[in-house]
Design goal:
Protein name: DASH complex subunit SPC19
Number of helices: 5
Distance between the termini: 131 Å
Number of strands: 0
Shape: rod-shaped
Organism: Lipomyces kononenkoae (Yeast)
Structural class: mainly alpha
Amino acid sequence: MNSSYNYSLQGCVSSLHASVDLLASSIASLSSGVDDLPRMKTVLKARRVFEVVPESEVNAVKRSFAGEVEPQIIELLRRAEAAISRLERRQKNLVAKAELQEVRLQRQPRAQEPESSVADSNNNAKKWTTLQQKRERLEYSLSRLNLAVEQKQRQLRNVQ
């Protein structure tokens, strides 16, 4: 009985060893799969990347944005128009000034040419030169006044 008892106990022990080995390999397999569980939890976590927004909210945001930006755009347009009108006035003034200078240049050689009747007397020559210069100054003043009148008229038109 002893030997059969030993034999049956040895069979139980070997079965128990096989079960323990099987459990150890199962635990090793499970632990390798479970060790990565925190990372898998974040990978599999559902995230909402895109959100559907109602059209009324989109329109409200558009109106709000337009309300904020429109006054700035209007102010910039007003500034640009003012700068353009200043440049146009300056251009007209420069053109008028160039025309006046051209007239002056055309008249200058005549003032330097002595006429036979005027060349006889130094007093008459000086008087004639002085009168020519005075005439040129008056023409220049007249053109400047005409420009000032035109500028005032433009300003009045812009105000109205």
